[in-house]
Amino acid sequence: MSRVVVALDAFKGALDQAKACQAVAEGLQTEWPALAVDICPLADGGEGTGAVFVAEGAKARVTTVVDAYGRPREARWYQWGSIALIEASEGSPYLPQHRRPGHPRSSTSFGTGALIRTALETKEVSEVWVALGGTGSVDGGIGLLAALGARFEDVQHRMLEPKVDNWDTIQQASLPRLAKPVTALVDVLVPLLGPSGALEGFGPQKGLSLSEARAWTPSLRHFAQAVDSQALETPGAGAAGGMGFALAALGARIASGAEFVAEKVGLRERLRAADWVVTGEGRMDEQSLMGKVVAVVLAEAKRARIPAIAVAGQIPWDLSRFYESGLAWAEPITTQPIALEEAIAQTGDALRAAGARVARIMQMIAEGEKGHVQG
């Protein structure tokens, strides 16, 4: 019996990873009922990582925290056995411009820190993973540090509030020790400072102008040097508006999210038992090969020596780099021009149809190989 692993990332704005995988699986088995399908949702360590582990049996828990602008909200975190998974997008969620109650200068990562503190204080939890992505704060992680017990002083040893306006004034930071191992998951190893860093690279998405981002940079550098000059240089420190830096300063490990998640759900072992793998995401582009889910799946498929097929809403004309990375072929889920809103609404049906088309080709190949062997 032929076997396929379905290992997709989320189709952002339409379906989470588990639902996207399920839709493709339904399409595959509609066309090829005898095909064994192993559903293996994946994530790159950002928003939606929780859905992957819910599919693996994790339970959602709810804690009251504050959002990226200090307003109370109910936030989920997940417990998978003795592991706690925190999504920074739950504690300090990204907000579109029309929903921001103030300037990004007033944003805070305190809510994510409060979620981490809750997990660390939970008796049954022995380890904490923090998925850094989908956040709306640009405070360099100062709020997160404060929520976990950090204290900040000026040159006269006066206590300072944990906010962006005090970056320049901080002369000394007293940091707590993490009572349990913490791993921060990032999709890209963003530096804290510089053109691709937390402020200049990602600040404009959260409401900063580029000129403001550049003007803030010396203050952020001063703050980071006062807290931990070594953590300042850590790859991934700029993730989630500087939360990567804050966690590194506390001694957390920074890890590639896609590789980490794939390892924890046993992707390599599951591919060894398969004949095919189907991966995909909403849009395939050059970033897909930079530590994202598609890149990890292609690498593991190459290692397992099985064909990898990708399904996506948008596929680039030139797939040469994907072929070099192990892609066999790519199947677009839309077969005609369509408005974005309509495409999003029809994602589930489109994935099922794409799965059926993929299954037809897979079955033809399998039958051809069988006939060749018999001949």
Automatic annotation (TrEMBL):
Pfam families: Gly_kinase
Superkingdom of the organism of origin: Bacteria
UniProt key word DNA repair: no
Gene Ontology terms, MF aspect: glycerate kinase activity
Alphabetical UniProt keywords: Kinase, Transferase
GO biological processes: organic acid phosphorylation
Family assignment from sequence similarity: Belongs to the glycerate kinase type-1 family.
PANTHER family named among the record's database cross-references: GLYCERATE KINASE (PTHR21599:SF0)
Protein known as: Glycerate kinase
Species, as recorded: Sulfobacillus harzensis
Source lineage: Bacteria, Bacillati, Bacillota, Clostridia, Eubacteriales
